[in-house]
Amino acid sequence: MRLVRPSIEWKNEHEDYMKEWDESRMTPSSFNLNGYENYEAYLEALKNRERGDGKWVPCTNYFLADESDRIIAMVDIRHELTDYLRNIGGHIGYGVRPVERRKGYATLILAKALKKCDELGIQRVLVTCNADNIGSAKTILKNGGVEDKSFIEEDGTVIRRFWMER
Questions:
Q1: Phi-psi region of 36 (alpha: psi -120 to 50; beta: other; left: phi over 0)
Q2: Using CA atoms, how far apart are residues 115 and 109, in angstroms rounded to an integer?
Q3: What is the pLDDT of residues 59-72, one digit of tens each?
Q4: What are the distances in angstroms from CA 149 to CA 61, 88, 126, 160, 163?
Q5: Is residue 69 part of a domain?
Q6: Number of domains in the chain
Q7: Dihedral, CA atoms, 133, 72, 143, 7, nearest 10 degrees?
Q8: Would you call 124 helix, strand, or coil by DSSP?
Q9: Are 94 and 145 contacting, i.e. CB atoms less than 8 angstroms apart?
């Protein structure tokens, strides 16, 4: 398993991954292909997002790919936090292909993302999940997360917040 950056070579595999996504909101949202004229336009928008243009903070995005070049999971590493990210999004957002869940890939992609955070010099990493996402909370704890005070959104959604010292 390896982390690879999105590029035109991953177009078909990324589109196949999207077809399998079983939730209304893509996680992480930076990998959502909806609304783009073509894959090249998506990649250009992703470059802008990664630079921190507009409302975005600088970030780096990766696919977790297996030996047969199949995308298993995706991760967005945000290099800094805004107030919103400090409460809700954290430094790392990840998602696992629905048919590959409950196989340890979330733990693996989070561990690999944390190593990337080390390379970026992010010494205190925040990872969050909804309170009802027990699997994600277990994944974060397995990777050394220490729970902090939760944040409650306006709609009542409880966001669990975990810090990892590097």
A1: beta
A2: 10
A3: 999 999 999 999 99
A4: 27, 12, 12, 7, 10
A5: yes
A6: 1
A7: -110
A8: strand
A9: no
> Considering the domain boundaries, does residue 142 fall inside one?
no
Measured at the CA of 62, the angle between CA 52 and CA 127, to 5 degrees, comes to: 75
160 located within any domain: no
Q: Report the C-alpha gap between 99 and 113 in whole angstroms.
A: 21
Structural domain for 27, as ranges: 2-121
Q: Is residue 6 domain-resident?
A: yes
Determine which helix (DSSP H) or strand (DSSP E) holds 138, and give its type and residue range: helix 134-142
The answer, as to whether pTM is greater than 0.90, is yes
64 SS3 class: strand
pLDDT in single tens digits along all 166 residues of the chain: 999 999 999 999 999 999 988 777 778 888 999 999 999 999 999 999 999 987 889 999 999 999 999 999 999 999 999 999 999 999 999 999 999 999 999 999 999 999 999 999 999 999 999 999 999 999 999 999 999 999 999 999 999 999 999 8
Non-local (6+) Cβ contacts of 57 within 8 A are 78, 79, 80, 81, 82, 85
Cis peptide before 28 (omega within 30 of 0): yes
